[in-house]
Write a structure and sequence with these properties.
The protein is an alpha/beta fold. The protein has one domain: TIM Barrel, CATH 3.20.20.70. The protein is built from 8 helices and 8 strands; from the N terminus they run E-H-E-H-E-H-E-H-E-E-H-E-H-E-H-H. The structure holds D-xylitol-5-phosphate and zinc ion. Zinc ion binds next to strand 2.
Length: 220
């Protein structure tokens, strides 16, 4: 069963609660929240107080993607703000396993992400500590970029690793996902699809989410 995780980075922030409600009513399972610190990535988005505000407005699973340096400093704050799944970047810290353990200690699901140039093999030591793996399909930092087909080698490698581990680990892709690229990523083994522009630029969010899911499941 595929899941769709609309990224609020592409929404109209002046109507944030209504934007979130539109994708919840549209059938999305997760809500993707991109946190950027201007250091790990060259962009700044929003932080825990925004997530806390929308937590009161939504029952969706909050899928928080931390693009921040040394995330151990902030995972407690994001857990408190309402995150359900917390994703950290492999490249953002010296000891990802310690951060994943802390996320679990806080009672949240833990995930790790790799940038396009990071080999999937770096994830092997963490498999027993993971609920989800996020393979970036663009360079992190900005919405609206083009999907990088060369990242599909990592998606296939991660799918194989998950299979061999015998564990239940979701495989998410993020960046440039639309009704065409979702098919490519689904074929490669992804089962959670982040979509910013392709959902929030559509006038009918429910239709956009349905079309993504339908396309992703057509190859499963
Ligand atoms: C990029 C973010 C993505 C982004 C996706 O750094 O992690 O979640 O918002 O946006 P689209 O779907 O527009 O590529
Ligand atoms: Zn993201």
């Amino acid at each position: 069963m595929c899941k769709i995780s609309p990224s609020v980075l592409a929404c109209d922030f002046s109507h944030l609660a209504d934007e979130v409600k539109s994708v919840e009513a549209g059938g999305a399972e997760y809500l993707h929240l991109d946190v950027m610190d201007g250091v790990f990535v060259p962009n700044i988005s929003f932080g825990p107080c925004v997530i806390h505000s929308i937590r009161a407005q939504s029952a969706m699973v909050f899928d928080v993607h931390l693009m921040i340096t040394d995330p151990i400093r902030y995972v407690g704050v994001f857990a408190e703000a309402g995150a359900d799944i917390i994703t950290i970047h492999y490249e953002s810290c010296d000891d990802p396993a310690a951060v994943l353990r802390e996320i679990h200690r806080l009672g949240k699901k833990a995930a790790i992400s790799i940038k396009p140039a990071t080999p999937a093999s770096v994830l092997k030591p963490f498999l027993s500590d993971l609920d989800m793996i996020l393979v970036m399909t663009v360079e992190p930092g900005f919405g609206g970029q083009s999907f990088m087909p060369e990242t599909m080698a990592s998606v296939r490698a991660v799918r194989q690793m998950i299979k061999e581990s015998g564990r239940v680990i979701e495989l998410e892709v993020d960046g440039g996902i639309n009704a065409q690229t979702v098919v490519t990523a689904s074929e490669a083994g992804a089962d959670v699809f982040v979509a910013g522009s392709s959902v929030f630029r559509a006038s009918d969010r429910g239709e956009a989410i349905h079309n993504l899911r339908h396309a992703a499941e057509s190859v499963k």
